[in-house]
Design goal:
Number of helices: 10
Largest sheet: 8 strands, parallel
Structural class: alpha/beta
CATH topology: TIM Barrel
Distance between the termini: 32 Å
CATH class: Alpha Beta
Helix content: 25-40%
CATH architecture: Alpha-Beta Barrel
Length: about 325
Amino acid sequence: MPDWLSLTEEPALEPELPIIDPHHHLWDRPNNRYMLEDLIEDTRAHNVRQTVFVECTSMYRADGPEELRVVGETEFVQGVAAKSASGGYGETRVATGIVGSANLRLGDRVAAVLEAQIAASPQRFRGIRHRAAWADRTVVPNQRADAPEHILLDPDFRKGYAHLRTYGLSFEGWLYHTHIDDLTDLAKAFPDTTIIFNHLGGPIGVGSYAGRRDEVFAAWKPAVAELAQCPNVVAKVGGIQMVVNGYRWHELERPPTSDELLQANQDWYNYTIDQFGPDRCMFESNFPVDKLSCSYTVLWNQFKKLTRGFSADERAAMFHDTAMRVYRLPRV
């Protein structure tokens, strides 16, 4: 992958502009490693001040109570964050915010899991992502078998979800465009819990949705508009360079330029920003998942080009300030 990514290189635009990347992952898996050093290398061209780690089933405990094994991921990232905070890896402070996992379908029993997660990283733990990205396997072949359809409407899930407010935790809404209405229903039912809308609601562009981008966009717009009416929801702008989005960048002879990315993505980005407003939007990398399609430098150049017509305050919100406020991050 690095050799292919090097076929399209760009200097970072406005390299002094402060950035908080509110969505990335870390893992060490067979033939698939993305750790602190890799992230630092990817971010070096831009002025990334801080990052937020989001759960990715990484480093779960090998034993102990099943529902508490997810805490191993937070323990792992807490260690990475401590390494970064030492200053030995540069000025970027990685994982000043941590979003972990918990099975909210445990209902009231999830309280013990949330307490264990917070105890594993008292200064950094900020929220929970319980994935709701359901799609028929004929559309998304790698669909997780334990992700039932309409999980956000499930009574047991909602009983567990109610505990997020008690502990001051936010919720990451990761789902596909076909189920955005479920997230809107959840937001209205729990108006005091902050929801972060992940990856623009996952517009699908593969399987039966391949070649139907205009149709998907037309169906996606009213769902996003209704969700944006919920003041407790903020949006991550990005995360649509995955295979499931159907752009097939990874099949090209060379990676896309920032201009090519912008041409493909700007309608989705602009509509989201128009609906939520800059003070409820934050750009995200979704690395290393989106690294399959483009480099970190090119990705953020795209965001900088997108916002050339915005005011300085609006740009500061989307690149930095919204993430700092929503995740309650320190000023670095």
